[in-house]
Amino acid sequence: MLQLIRLELRKTAMGWYVNTALLVNLVIALFMGVGGYVIHSKGLILSISFEEVFSAIGAAVRALFTIIASVLISKLVLEEYKNRTITIMFAYPICRRTLLAVKLFMICGITFVAIVLSTIVAITAFCGINAYFDFIPISFTASNLMVLGFSVITFALTATGTSFIALLFGMRKHSVADTMSSSILVAASMNTFFMEKSVITQVGIPMFLAVIGIGCAAVVFRNVETVDVA
Description:
The protein is an all-alpha fold. It has one domain (about 1-225). About 80% of the residues lie in helices and about 0% in strands. The protein has helices spanning about 1-10, 15-40, 50-80, 85-90, 95-135, 140-160, 165-175, 175-190, 200-225.
């Protein structure tokens, strides 16, 4: 398994992903900085809590990286089918499911780590901006940090699972366009309910979408032995 992962990493240039992740974090930080300056210069008072800001930032990060995950799916899976380069991998004495499992594991790991790190970076950036402009009172305790950390990891896991919904749509015709468009719709549906007060809505919807995403990946994994290369 590790040898196959190393082979995939050598075969697929990941510099674009790192650059995209850095750009996303920079854009989020700039957006918060400019917004903070405008709010401060106009003397506006924010009537929101840190928890609401945390939810909004987390939702934005997860939506963006769900879309970026579709690009990763396209590069690691769909383009290889479309360009028939996957046939080289199928020539090895390894079953197709093992090869697909390696690719899905990479997509899952990269997306999860990117969401967690980007959420931490975005929250840290907001805390720095808030310390300068003093929008809302923020106080951290050990218990609060544990809850926030658990929330970041949990929602990163659900967003990672949800990103596989696009895989099923893309594998139907090995279409990058279908993968991208479906991921955008999924990201939009993820963020529809993030400001709701109901715990069932805030937690239940992401978990439900994650289950659907895992189910989509399972369907693709089950059928990979019988799917012909386009």
